[in-house]
Amino acid sequence: MSSSSEGETQLPNRTSEIRKDTVFGRWVVFSPARSRRPSDFKSKNPNPTSNPTSCPFCIGRESECAPEIFRVPPSTPDWTIRVIENLYPALRRDLNPPHTGSDQAVGACRVTGFGFHDVVIETPYHPITLSDLEPEAVGEVLLVYVERVRQLKALGSLKYVQVFKNHGAAAGASMTHSHSQIMGIPVIPPSVTTRLSCMKEIFDLTGKCSVCDLQSDQDLMINSSTHFYAIAPFASSYAFEIWIVPREHSADFHELDHSKAMDLGGLLKLMLQKLAKQLNNPPFNFVIHTAPFDLSPSCVPYSHWFLQIVPHMGTIAGFELGTGCYINPIFPEDAAKVLREVDG
Amino acid sequence: MSSSSEGETQLPNRTSEIRKDTVFGRWVVFSPARSRRPSDFKSKNPNPTSNPTSCPFCIGRESECAPEIFRVPPSTPDWTIRVIENLYPALRRDLNPPHTGSDQAVGACRVTGFGFHDVVIETPYHPITLSDLEPEAVGEVLLVYVERVRQLKALGSLKYVQVFKNHGAAAGASMTHSHSQIMGIPVIPPSVTTRLSCMKEIFDLTGKCSVCDLQSDQDLMINSSTHFYAIAPFASSYAFEIWIVPREHSADFHELDHSKAMDLGGLLKLMLQKLAKQLNNPPFNFVIHTAPFDLSPSCVPYSHWFLQIVPHMGTIAGFELGTGCYINPIFPEDAAKVLREVDG
């Protein structure tokens, strides 16, 4: 027995199960046979300490970056957060937007790669990670996302905005300096269509928003704050996946106000700290699932934004590629219990 | 200029584009800005030479494996292929099957983890990979898949079967000895539902099977054989993704006969050799997309099986996680040209 697992409780002995969730309508296979103790889940790719000597995201090296969109506070060399263009954008703001309705086309379809791909530098200092920041500073980063999403919506040429963070090379980060990304997309992405259609089906049947309904299962609850709660979702696709959900029904992330952003900042920081501690500083992604820009009023009752955090603990292999089902080695009620008990 | 790229043609200078395919209805972002030469695509995780001293899949060590289902040829110690149970199955054959129709349930749903999870050991000899085998021997492996799929169908308790191969640790292989896997699943997986619904939509509109229609674009063609062709699909989610497609309309992989299996064996071997040569022996997956077991006769005209090969060249990161869209750094017409020209 390793020292880290001394006195550690075994996970309950559970039988394999297949579950479908109420948000994406995905089937997930829970197959706990191989793992028995919480400490069996440790990242094999913990993030190394990085070398800041060549980092253009560091304060004082702004001229080496792609153009700046805005900074906080504005017009000062002592910025705390900067939003800049991505030097290697996946979508390009200099192309023409596709025609309206092209994302509804049946059959093979191609449109220009118009869109926006921005980077949010979350801190001027290289060794600092997002979860090192004070809760209020994490809240400020969230408010920067809100501001940029509102700007992109105002353009009128985009259908969806994806806010996401890749932390660690294995999670897709090409820069070690703490940052996140915002992509404005001219079509409605497949995951968004699927999510809204699954949530509509449940709303039509039950009259309930399936995200509002997530707070009913106390076994899955990890922590909560004034306006948000963090859960391990019932059909988590990934081991130790966490969703942070606004208590109050809200379709659009960009409606987040200052006091809720500060509150969410604290809960997000706590969840990232808990994952880092429990899983040995794993690479991770977080993504914000929100409503498309042109959400019809009839969809508002079942559209509810949330933030999903996914530690990178395994590999997408042939089974997942073929079926779209994931195999998860830990039940969410066990992951929730482990994460409830670990200190932030 | 590195020696490997000496005299190498640059890839054409293309502008970012977003494409939707006709099989999965997925949007893919083509963003070629960062890569300019075919040799820029080399695996950073080539498969190491493995150590066979502790391998239970090697001939003579059969007693260390989970129970055998069948071997080829039957009842001989000098087998060439064995089908065995997975020692750590994700689904368990000893549980009760879920009730019929449970996969149609709306809302949160859980069923037992009933199912089958088998391993096909493709060769008795550790250093041999699938693409080292003679075309006929690859064909024999395909016929073993067919036989096992027919057995699983005959049980009557499964909805779908996923045949897949993980090659290399980064692609999810936990054993280095060449093998593939077959999972019998008691629900219809989400990718299968999405694929059939997308293909139905196109069939209803055009009267055509969208997989039959794939052979019309010569720019995407890589190679072909008597009964099959290999293409880089129009909206490839992954760099150098390949689909091998039966020319003749056919819903079910398990209808593959002996002569077609031999023919497919040759083309599959050629494609794996080309990927290994062009991309520096990358980890890869292949998966067989086929019809669910209980396919209604009305779906037969637009259901068409094919084999998808995906080299692991990048990471699934926040954007893909959030949107279900992939970012591909090489256009399929360029990947097809490169793969047409590389020797097998």
TrEMBL record, chains A, B:
Note on cofactor: Binds 1 zinc ion per subunit.
Active site: 179
InterPro entries, A to Z: ADP-glucose_phosphorylase, GalP_UDPtransf1, GalP_Utransf_N, HIT-like_sf
Pfam name, any one: GalP_UDP_transf
Residue intervals of the Galactose-1-phosphate uridyl transferase N-terminal domain: 15-188
Keyword Transferase: yes
Biological processes annotated in GO: galactose metabolic process
Low complexity: bias regions: 44-54
Cofactor requirement: Zn(2+)
Cleaved signal peptide residues: none
Keywords of this entry: Carbohydrate metabolism, Metal-binding, Nucleotidyltransferase, Transferase, Zinc
Top-level taxon of origin: Eukaryota
Protein name: Galactose-1-phosphate uridyl transferase N-terminal domain-containing protein
UniProt source species: Rhynchospora breviuscula
